[in-house]
Amino acid sequence: MLPRIALARLVGRTGVTFGAATSSYCTSTSDHSFATIKPKKINYERIGIVGVPFDKGQRKKGVGLGPKAIREAGLIDHIQEISPKLNIKDYGDIQYEALNFQGRKVGNMKKLEHVASCSRNLSHQVTEVLDDDRLCITLGGDHAIAIGSIDGHLHHSKDVAVIWVDAHADLNTNSTSPSGNIHGMPVALLARELCDYWPYIPGMDWQEPIISIKNLAYIGLRSVDPYERAIIEKFGINAFGMREVEKYGIREVMRMALERIDPNGERSLHVSYDIDSLDVLEAPSTGTSVRGGLTLREGIYIMEEAYGTGRLAAVDLVEVNPAIGTPEDVRRTVEAAIHLLVAACGHSRKGDIADTLDLIQK
């Protein structure tokens, strides 16, 4: 934990106040009406895929090519192999026209006009996919797209729990971000507890930060900024870093995460999965890689367990960048992404011996 005086200096320097509301961001109005009924069981025989070739949330070119690379590597065919009964619909890529802010700006939020426009269109598309009774798979693009995908999920089912699988917390505000890249801010934009930390944001009136940060769990953290660490500790956010994965094992980490964010097993589940959560040896073609991450086996297990809840409604797979690394690096990264996504759609690595042991135990 940061020493109190260091935290005070940090807060003073960034302009953030741990206190009463001073921002109008919380009062933004949405053009959707929220569902109030308990989420129904997901129909896993119907799957919808949405591409978001978006790269304006960060500065490295190429991440917008991620959806195309994953599709061309045979994503739909690999998912279809799970069962011939699966009905898979590709909704294509999100298109948008950047807003004209007419001189209105927010400091330290780069390409906001693009992020706001793309995210709004994505939110509508995700809601449409979920309303069509399909598991929604969103292919990024950088992690800024989670603003739109989670917002769209919230407009389909208000009671949502989120598992954020990432090397980074993505919890900065415009006042604390060292880069101004919005792919490092989506959690802070979505959480209602943090809405007071923002100024009014033009172009984001459609988005209302209503999800509780206590309904979110991080898995795979290993590169967290001091401000983000202070916020995690202040709000008691469920954060399982690589140290916890090593200490408890991925099975126990996943059990604890689900128990904390959805103790009654009733919430609609959203997994937002940054490929950089995997170790760089498993997924080298990504923009902000950090050594010492999850193995692919651990990453797949997270998706299998999320699917096993019967409540997994939406998945983001982001930050695959085919412009980084050698052709072999790209192949390995894209293959890892497909392994994760087919696990989210129901592919199982379970062997026959497990079924036999279950019968013996019964």
TrEMBL record:
Keyword list, A-Z: Arginine metabolism, Hydrolase, Manganese, Metal-binding, Urea cycle
Pfam families, A to Z: Arginase
Gene3D superfamilies referenced in this protein's UniProt entry, alphabetically: Ureohydrolase domain (3.40.800.10)
Stored SUPFAM superfamilies: Arginase/deacetylase
GO MF annotation, one: arginase activity
UniProt binding sites for Mn(2+): 143, 166, 168, 170, 274, 276
One GO term of the biological process aspect: L-arginine catabolic process to proline via ornithine
EC number(s) from the headed UniProt entry: 3.5.3.1
Cofactor binding description: Binds 2 manganese ions per subunit.
Pathway(s) it belongs to: Nitrogen metabolism; urea cycle; L-ornithine and urea from L-arginine: step 1/1
Gene Ontology cellular component list: cytosol; nucleus
Family: Belongs to the arginase family.
Protein name: Arginase
